[in-house]
Amino acid sequence: QEIERFGYRTLADVLRSVRGIYITNDRNYSIVGTRGFSKPGDYNSRILLLINGHRVNDNIFGQAEIGAEFGLDPATFERVEIIRGPASSLYGDSAFFAVVNVITKSGASLDGASIALEAGTLGTELVRGSFGRTFRNGLDLALSSTYEQSDGVEKLYFPVFDSPETNNGIAEGLDEEAVRQLYGRLTYKGLAVTAAYGTRNREIPSASTGTLFNQQDWHSEATDRHTLFDAHYTRSISETGVSLRFSYDRFSYDGTYPFAVEPDGTPTLVGLVGGVGAPWAGAAAVARLLAGPQTVRARVEFIDNIRQDQTASYVNDPLPVFDLDRSSTQRAVYVQDEIK
Questions:
Q1: Would the pLDDT of 265 be above 60?
Q2: How far apart are alpha carbons 56 and 186 in whole angstroms?
Q3: Which of 42, 105, 122, 158 has its CA 20 to 30 A from that of 115?
Q4: Nearest to 171 by CA among 210, 208, 213
Q5: Is the pLDDT of residue 174 over 80?
Q6: What's the predicted TM-score (pTM) here?
Q7: Residues 87, 90: Cα–Cα separation, whole Å
Q8: In the predicted model, is pLDDT for residue 260 greater than 80?
Q9: Which residue in 24, 41, 68 sits closest to 177, CA to CA?
Q10: Helix residue spans in the chain (DSSP H)
Q11: In terms of DSSP bridges, do strands 124-134 and 112-120 run parallel, antiparallel, or are they unpaired?
Q12: 250, 277 in Cβ contact below 8 A?
């Protein structure tokens, strides 16, 4: 209800409204601060981010993307669950300061078809189409697609660049952002399948990472993409609950960063950076209620990070700065006995 009432456009907007959580933005990424900790330029790797219980921190930086780069339109959020404080023992890697679990809408909650068209100042446009329905056989289907773009603020003033050589600190026409998002969810009996794709292209006016300020020929910009597929099956047998999960994610990013001209007259260096992360994971869990207020849980999980690649190079230079093709695997098992 609050998401709809206040018209939040990103997960960062939602979290900004939560007591004890602080959001900063460098006009590229949104950074989470919590419990008195907020490190400038941090990758949000100390926050565990979930979609319907599925981890979506990337497998290169461990980054929790909460701005438009998150890949889901808040119009598809049923609710957002937040646990403050360390919870790694229960929820896994990265849950040092908080766990954020985004629960998405079902076909029943969408209940029909809808189209939204919006336009506003700063060249803001939004088109969204949604469909949701529960069929007689119990199959529940939800689909949504969103396109959004904004030209941003035409002139932004940065005091640190206030000199004639850097346009008196004014970045002109470098605040554009475009977002495309697809979402689908299917549930039938004990099976729930979630699929999503999101891409965000962002021009960066703040000359981050030491790049050239107000560069008009080569814009500083970044593109983030996230593909998600998650299948979760649960079933109760007597007093024992069994769950199986399989998931696949693909994270990718590309950035263009123009660096300053050298004093000897060397042309502007344009840096190109990129990365691709692709993990698949499988997990099985069982929980049983014993006599008295006691519950025993066990879980095994395997993650295959088939791609953890990073590249960096300069335009018109055949030799890369680095070209890393990496992969890894993770295995985990735990047993927990809860006595109330």
A1: no
A2: 19
A3: 122
A4: 213
A5: yes
A6: 0.91
A7: 6
A8: no
A9: 68
A10: 2-6, 11-16, 88-91, 107-110
A11: antiparallel
A12: yes
Rg of the chain on CA atoms, in Å: 22
CB atoms within 10 A of CB 238: 7
Count of positions (residues) in the chain: 340
pLDDT, averaged across the chain: 91
Distance separating alpha carbons of residues 267 and 166, to the nearest angstrom: 17
d(CA 272, CA 258): 9
Secondary structure letter of residue 37 according to DSSP:
B
d(CA 134, CA 114): 16
pLDDT score, position 267: 63
For position 261, what pLDDT does the model report?
65
Long-range contacts (CB closer than 8 Å, 24 or more residues apart) made by 217-221? 217/258, 217/268, 218/256, 218/258, 218/268, 218/270, 219/174, 219/256, 219/258, 220/174, 220/255, 220/256, 220/257, 220/258, 221/255, 221/256
Q: In which residue are the tokens 């088109």 written?
A: 127
In this prediction, residue 279 carries a pLDDT of 97
pLDDT at residue 296 in the model: 93
What sign does the CA torsion over 256, 49, 72, 135 have?
A: positive
Residue 197 CB partners (closer than 8 Å, separation 6+): 71, 181, 182, 225, 226, 227, 228
Spatial distance between the Cα atoms of 51 and 74, rounded to a whole number of angstroms:
12
Contact (CB, 8 A) for 153 and 175: yes
Which burial class, exposed, middle or buried, applies to 142 when counting CB atoms under 10 A from its CB (0-12, 13-18, 19+)?
buried
Higher pLDDT, 259 or 21: 21
Question: What pLDDT does 194 receive?
Answer: 97
What does the pLDDT average to over 102-124? 94
CA distance 62 to 9: 23
Q: What tokens does 67 get? A: 């701005």
Number of H helices, E strands in the chain: 4, 19
What is the 3-class SS of 24-69, one letter each residue? EECCCCEEEEECCECCCCCCCCCEEEEECCEECCCCCCCCCCCCHH
Q: Which residue matches tokens 């599925």?
A: 54
